[in-house]
């Protein structure tokens, strides 16, 4: 295994007898890859990162000197999560397209962090593969670094595991680990959600990174070619390019808006819409005394969803459970601030929609019948 915080190894003499490389693990290629990507890591580092070249772990200042930074934490709470890209990597490997799955990896983690009201601080990645191919893996890490910069998050380190006995030739798996911080009094709390609160939905950019086992099954059953263009979709992009559109990074605009309300707690809940769909994930933001009533026609459904549904005759309920269906993130907001928050997020580049309202209930999400 190759630690990304480690310095380059010294030259090695020629070994005698059976070697690690003959067993399928090339330490020299791992070291070369680690050396190649250090520049990508460094471009995500700010003044909070403490240099630790050659160390076994990264160092990061949580609290800091007021003369160097704008604010100190008074009652900081660490927020941590881990997630992967799932079987979307299978499609990326099939198409030899690795530029976007790095953003998927970061987004799946930092989008979860901001649900708690947290500011993402640092990110670590884990790449497992059959064989280290530095040029290929660099394309993934470059995408990770680009996404971390967008979220103002330090790529502090990582691990690359070459395991030929576990992964077949060409196979790759990705996992990410994110750490953030939130002032305790500003952390989201489902008990603050009240009847009358408004649900704001932020559009997704497509399938994102959930449901790809079903996507790949649809491709097989309907004999769809990911390298082909289809009239129902964007004619300038292949089906594969559309499916590999990365998970949208919601962290930066949401953190920006939350910082503008230093006293008032106008956002009462949030949800990252991943596996389980809109209803299951939004329900996690509620307490047993309220329901969220959602109006399905309040946002445009991305064309990829009806395309996939029609090609394999997928039941609508199954579509709603497997996919985000066009909404990638939700905020629950006090009614007097809903229009303002939606406009602020729109000004920051999000496509926002008022998609529902909170009522008295029993902690459920219900879909309002279409008129």
Observed structural traits:
11 helices, Phosphoribosyl-aminoimidazole Synthetase, Chain A, domain 2, 60s Ribosomal Protein L30, Chain: A, 22% strand, 371 residues, 5-stranded mixed β-sheet, alpha+beta
| Coarse shape | globular
Per CATH, the superfamily of the largest domain is PurM-like, N-terminal domain
- The number of helical runs is 11
Kindly state the mean pLDDT as a whole number?
89
| Cα end-to-end separation | 57 Å
> How many separate domains?
2
Low-confidence stretches: 6-11
CATH class of the largest domain: Alpha Beta
Structural class: alpha+beta
Q: What is the string of SSEs from the N terminus onward?
A: EHEEEHHEHEEEHHHEHEHHEHEE
Beta percentage is 15-25%
Which fold name is given in CATH as the topology of the largest domain? 60s Ribosomal Protein L30, Chain: A
Give me the side-by-side strand order of the main sheet: 9-11-8-12-10-13
Cα gyration radius (Å):
22 Å
Number of strands: 13
| Proportion in helices | 25-40%
Main beta sheet: 6 strands, mixed
Q: Architecture of the largest domain in CATH?
A: 2-Layer Sandwich
Quick structural overview:
The chain has eleven helices and 13 strands. It has 371 residues and is of the alpha+beta class.
Description of the structure:
The protein is an alpha+beta fold. The chain folds into 2 domains: 2-184, PurM-like, N-terminal domain (60s Ribosomal Protein L30, Chain: A); 190-367, Alpha-Beta Complex (Phosphoribosyl-aminoimidazole Synthetase, Chain A, domain 2), CATH 3.90.650.10. The chain has 11 helices and 13 strands. It has helices at 27-42, 88-95, 101-115, 134-150, 212-221, 239-243, 251-259, 277-283, 304-312, 316-322, 338-347; strands spanning 2-3, 49-50, 59-60, 76-84, 119-129, 154-162, 172-183, 198-203, 267-272, 290-294, 327-333, 352-360, 365-367. Strands 9-11-8-12-10-13 form a 6-stranded mixed sheet. It has a 5-stranded mixed sheet with strand order 1-6-5-7-4, covered by helices on one side. The longest helix is centred in the middle third of the chain and has 17 residues, at 134-150. The radius of gyration is 22 Å and the shape is globular. The termini are far apart. Residues 6-11 have low confidence and may be disordered.
């Amino acid at each position: 295994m190759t630690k990304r915080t480690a310095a380059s190894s010294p030259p090695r003499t020629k070994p005698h007898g059976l070697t690690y490389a003959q067993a399928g693990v090339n330490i020299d290629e791992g070291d070369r890859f680690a050396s190649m990507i250090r520049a990508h890591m460094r471009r995500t580092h700010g003044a909070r990162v403490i240099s630790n070249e050659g160390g076994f772990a990264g160092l990061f200042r949580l609290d800091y000197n007021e003369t160097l930074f704008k604010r100190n934490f008074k009652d900081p709470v660490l927020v941590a999560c881990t997630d992967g890209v799932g079987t979307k990597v299978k499609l990326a490997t099939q198409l030899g397209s690795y530029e976007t799955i790095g953003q998927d990896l970061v987004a799946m983690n930092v989008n979860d962090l901001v649900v708690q009201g947290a500011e993402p601080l640092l990110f670590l990645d884990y790449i497992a593969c059959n064989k280290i191919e530095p040029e290929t893996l660099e394309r993934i890490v470059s995408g990770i670094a680009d996404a971390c910069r967008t979220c103002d998050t330090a790529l502090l380190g990582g691990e690359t595991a070459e395991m030929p006995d576990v992964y077949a030739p060409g196979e790759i798996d990705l996992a990410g680990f994110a750490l953030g911080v939130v002032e305790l009094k500003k952390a989201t709390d489902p008990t603050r959600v009240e009847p009358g609160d408004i649900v704001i939905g932020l559009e997704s950019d497509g399938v994102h990174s959930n449901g790809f086992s079903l996507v790949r099954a649809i491709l097989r059953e309907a004999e769809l070619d990911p390298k082909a263009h289809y009239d129902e979709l964007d004619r300038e992009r292949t089906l594969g390019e559309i499916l590999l559109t990365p998970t949208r990074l919601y962290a930066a605009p949401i953190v920006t808006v939350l910082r503008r309300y230093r006293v008032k707690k106008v956002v009462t809940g949030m949800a990252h819409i991943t596996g389980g769909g809109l209803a299951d994930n939004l329900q996690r933001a509620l307490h047993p005394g309220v329901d969220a009533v959602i109006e399905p026609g309040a946002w445009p459904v991305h064309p990829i969803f009806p395309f996939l549904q029609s090609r394999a005759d997928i039941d609508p309920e199954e579509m709603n459970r497997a996919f985000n269906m066009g909404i990638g993130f939700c905020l629950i907001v006090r009614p007097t601030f809903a229009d303002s928050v939606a406009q602020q997020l729109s000004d920051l580049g999000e496509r926002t929609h008022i998609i529902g309202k909170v009522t008295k209930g029993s902690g459920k999400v219900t879909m309002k019948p279409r008129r």
